[in-house]
């Protein structure tokens, strides 16, 4: 007779997950939840304590009897290094194992200088932020970069910014200084992850749309980031719009929403209309002044973006669409025309409970998202078991 499958035994990684989530916080609870014997629980908990991932706490003695020892996830038991790179703004930080920023720095670096300049600068900054902390406390690295990323490889594909980043495999470069797991995703996906966990943890389907120099989206579906087969999901910038005016996009197609309605496109249109608009701040000033021509151009861009989002909403049925990026943050008229078109053109069921909101965390969501991405990986039961092996 073939043996019946027994439930697989809970590993140390599983035990850590139960303690982290608060599902079981004493040795007795762990035994009950996992079905492991007392010595087996003891062995696994001992390993986790030894590796600094779990600490014991004794509650204040209650009346009578010995108080049970509570097990807690030790957020101070290591750090992760994170960096959210933008085309112009970059944030670098060291976070604890709960994703809290312990030390950080923001600066303007021109990522167009290429990986040979930017990556060493990031690693130097992490070194400085780590200070005297032992380097073996570093458990992982999480990065967001302004390029399409083949996620599994950490390879930048089509760089939205500049050719010098195209085809760069980032993890081996970081490994020369920090030999830990390195996770790299595109800047919009890390914003989506950060905004989801940080501001909308109760929602399982969310779309984060960044309207900035470029247009892109990060999709949370069923509580997880949706990357697609290789990592290109959410690249809504190259979906064509109707009546775009025949603008040639840098991808080679015509009338992509990115080429028609991004921050770059707005500046081009305004200059063509004879306005003095060199940067997004200039457009903001024109919008504030109520300049009629500017308002018309901004509203038209909003309609184009709304048209693409309406299609995405029909496919994905998110409960929240978050609009972020400096263009979305600055322009009320853009956001209202996006909302108007999405509500009009998406199906009734898809919009019944749909909320379209401004980003609550702003650019800060990037660092939080990088931390969540790397922590989800390095604290997963599989990764913890590998570490303890
Ligand atoms: Zn395009």
First-last Cα distance: 34 Å
The portion of residues assigned to helices is: 40-55%
Mean pLDDT: 91
Strand order of the largest sheet: 5-4-3-6-9
| Oligomer category | single chain
Shape: elongated
Radius of gyration: 24 Å
- Runs in which pLDDT lies below 50 for 5 or more consecutive residues are none
Features:
389 residues, alpha/beta, 5-stranded mixed sheet, 14 strands, 20% strand, elongated, binds zinc ion
What secondary-structure arrangement, pairings included, does this model have?
Layout: H1 12-21, H2 27-34, H3 38-50, E1 54-58, E2 69-73, E3 79-85, E4 89-96, E5 101-108, H4 115-130, E6 138-145, E7 147-150, E8 155-159, H5 170-175, E9 182-186, H6 187-199, E10 206-211, E11 215-221, E12 224-225, H7 257-261, H8 263-272, H9 280-288, H10 292-316, E13 320-324, H11 326-330, H12 332-345, H13 348-351, E14 355-358, H14 365-378, H15 381-388
Parallel strand pairs: 3-6, 6-9, 10-13, 13-14
Antiparallel strand pairs: 1-2, 3-4, 4-5, 7-8, 10-11, 11-12
Helix pairs in contact: 1-15, 2-3, 6-14, 10-12
This protein binds zinc ion.
Explain what the structure shows:
- The chain has 389 residues and is α/β, with parallel strands linked by helices.
- It contains 15 helices and 14 strands.
- The strands form four sheets. Strands 5-4-3-6-9 form a five-stranded mixed sheet, with helices on both faces.
- α1 crosses α15, α2 crosses α3 and α10 packs parallel to α12.
- It starts with 11 loop residues before the first helix and ends with a helix.
- Bound molecules: zinc ion.
């Amino acid at each position: 007779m073939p043996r019946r499958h027994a439930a697989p035994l809970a590993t140390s990684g599983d035990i850590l997950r139960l303690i982290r989530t608060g599902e079981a916080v004493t040795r007795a609870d762990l035994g009950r939840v996992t079905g492991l014997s007392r010595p087996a629980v003891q062995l696994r908990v001992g390993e986790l304590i030894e590796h600094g991932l779990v600490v014991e706490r004794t509650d204040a003695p209650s009346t009578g009897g010995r108080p049970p020892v509570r097990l807690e996830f030790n957020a101070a038991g290591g750090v992760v290094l994170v960096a959210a790179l933008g085309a112009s703004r970059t944030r670098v930080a060291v976070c604890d194992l709960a994703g809290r920023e312990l030390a950080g720095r923001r600066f303007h670096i021109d990522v167009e200088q290429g990986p040979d300049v930017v990556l060493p600068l990031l690693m130097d900054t992490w070194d400085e932020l780590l200070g005297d902390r032992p380097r073996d406390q570093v458990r992982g690295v999480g990065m967001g970069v302004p390029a399409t990323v083949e996620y599994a490889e950490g390879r930048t594909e089509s760089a939205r910014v500049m050719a010098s980043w195209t085809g760069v495999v980032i993890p081996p470069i970081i490994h020369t200084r920090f030999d830990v797991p390195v996770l790299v995703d595109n800047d919009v996906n890390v914003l989506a992850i950060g905004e989801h966990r940080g501001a909308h943890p109760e929602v399982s389907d969310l779309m984060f749309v960044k309207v900035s120099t470029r247009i892109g989206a990060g999709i949370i579906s069923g509580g997880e980031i949706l990357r697609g087969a290789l990592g290109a999901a959410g690249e809504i910038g190259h979906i064509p719009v109707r009546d775009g005016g025949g603008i040639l996009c840098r991808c080679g197609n015509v009338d992509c929403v990115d080429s028609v309605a991004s921050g770059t496109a707005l500046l081009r249109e305004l200059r063509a209309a004879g306005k003095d608009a060199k940067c997004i701040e200039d457009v903001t000033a024109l919008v504030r002044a109520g300049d009629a021509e500017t308002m018309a151009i901004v509203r038209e861009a909003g309609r184009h973006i709304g048209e693409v989002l309406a299609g995405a909403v029909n496919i994905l049925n998110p409960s929240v669409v978050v609009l972020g990026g400096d263009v979305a943050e600055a322009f009320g008229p853009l956001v209202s025309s996006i909302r108007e078109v999405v509500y009009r053109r998406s199906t009734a069921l898809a919009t019944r409970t749909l909320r379209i909101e401004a980003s609550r965390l702003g650019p800060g969501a990037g660092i939080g998202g990088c931390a969540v991405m790397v922590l989800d990986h390095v604290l997963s039961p599989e990764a913890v078991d590998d570490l303890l092996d």
